[in-house]
C-alpha cells in the first residue's frame, strides 16, 4: 500500500528545525541559561516526533501526515493535542532563545 506523504523539502526543513532546536537547548543547559525551559525543549524535541510518527502509521490511505494530525485534532485525540502543544512550545522556545541572546549581544 502506498500512502500520501509530505514533499521531501518539508521533511528537510522539519528535521533541520528539530536538530537545531535540540542543539540550542543542549547549549542552554550546558551554559546554565534558561535551564528548566531548555530541558523541557529537549523533552518535546524528542517526544513529539516519536508520538507523531507512531500515531501517523495508522492513518488512512490518501491523506498525509499533516492532514491526519489536523483531523485527529478536530476529533480531540490526546496525542494530537500534545503534539500541537509541543510544537507551539518549541516555537516559543525559539522566540525566547533569540530574544535572550539578542539582548545579551547588545549589552
Automatic annotation (TrEMBL):
Keywords linked to the UniProt accession: Membrane, Transmembrane, Transmembrane helix
Name of this protein: Uncharacterized protein
Residues annotated as transmembrane: 12-30, 37-57, 77-99
Natural source organism: Priestia endophytica DSM 13796
Organism superkingdom: Bacteria
Amino acid at each position: 500500500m502506498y500512502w500520501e506523504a509530505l514533499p521531501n523539502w518539508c521533511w528537510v526543513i522539519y528535521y533541520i528545525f528539530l536538530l537545531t532546536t535540540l542543539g540550542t537547548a543542549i547549549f542552554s543547559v550546558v551554559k546554565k541559561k534558561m535551564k528548566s525551559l531548555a530541558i523541557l525543549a529537549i523533552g518535546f524535541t524528542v517526544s513529539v516526533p516519536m508520538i507523531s510518527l507512531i500515531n501517523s502509521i495508522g492513518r488512512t490511505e490518501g491523506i498525509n501526515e499533516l492532514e491526519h494530525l489536523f483531523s485527529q485534532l478536530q476529533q480531540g485525540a490526546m496525542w494530537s493535542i500534545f503534539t500541537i502543544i509541543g510544537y507551539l512550545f518549541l516555537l516559543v522556545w525559539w522566540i525566547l532563545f533569540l530574544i535572550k541572546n539578542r539582548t545579551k549581544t547588545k549589552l
